[in-house]
Design goal:
single chain, alpha+beta, globular
């Protein structure tokens, strides 16, 4: 299974909306194994990354207020690209391309005052799910 990055927001009805990735961009973040071999790897953790390492535990929801943290993680990985790619057993171009997709999604999210979800490819959806930590409006 592949991991994708998408921009999400809430519509006027409060439903979660996943925005379509523009055709000139990519939403690819990696294969499922990269949750541990790249994003949550000891090499990336040692850099002090805070957002992408969460992929080792599952899908990651990044609200608008945390987009800078995601971009910071991307910058750290790019600054240490040679070492991170080698530790992950991936080529530098493989890592650079996927980090670029994360950064592009963060910029699209900023433009929409939205968030980013990094997840196991769910496609373009409109549904009533809530990001982790979002209170359940049905709970009393």
């Amino acid at each position: 299974m592949s991991i994708s990055v998408d921009v999400f927001l809430r519509n006027d009805s409060g439903n979660l909306v996943i925005l379509t990735t523009p055709p000139e961009e990519s939403d690819l973040v990696g294969h499922d194994d990269t949750r541990h071999t790249l994003w949550g790897s000891p090499a990336v953790r040692a850099l002090g990354a805070t957002v992408v390492v969460g992929l080792s535990q599952g899908d990651v929801w990044v609200d608008f207020g945390r987009l800078d943290e995601l971009v910071d993680d991307c910058e750290l990985i790019l600054k240490h690209l040679v070492d991170v790619a080698a530790a992950a057993g991936r080529g530098e171009d493989y890592v650079r391309f996927r980090v670029g997709n994360l950064r592009a999604a963060a910029e699209r999210a900023r433009a929409h005052r939205a968030g980013v979800v990094i997840w196991a490819g769910h496609g373009d959806l409109v549904y009533n799910a809530r990001p982790a930590g979002d209170p359940d409006p049905q709970a009393a």
